[in-house]
Design brief:
The protein is mainly α. It has helices at about 5-15, 20-45, 50-79.
């Protein structure tokens, strides 16, 4: 069982200690750091064949797409 699955099980039981919350926070931060490292690696590889302007446009499009999808999800929740 992964860390999030374990967390959900503990949340349902209402039995999470401060130390377990700390472990969960550390797992989230580690995952975020790993994701940033992958993004940086991807960026460096793209620099070999794309201009910085095009890379910027791609990154901006990804951010705008994420915002758009969150907006749609929020609107569906409000219905």
């Amino acid at each position: 069982m992964n860390a999030l699955g374990h967390l959900e099980k503990l949340l349902m039981q209402g039995e999470i200690t401060e130390e377990e919350y700390n472990e969960i926070f550390n797992a989230f931060f580690k995952a975020d750091e790993d994701n940033c490292a992958l993004d940086r690696e991807y960026l460096e590889k793209c620099k070999k064949f794309l201009s910085n302007k095009k890379i910027y446009m791609i990154l901006k499009a990804e951010i705008l797409f994420s915002r758009y999808m969150l907006k749609i999800a929020k609107e569906k929740d409000e219905e």
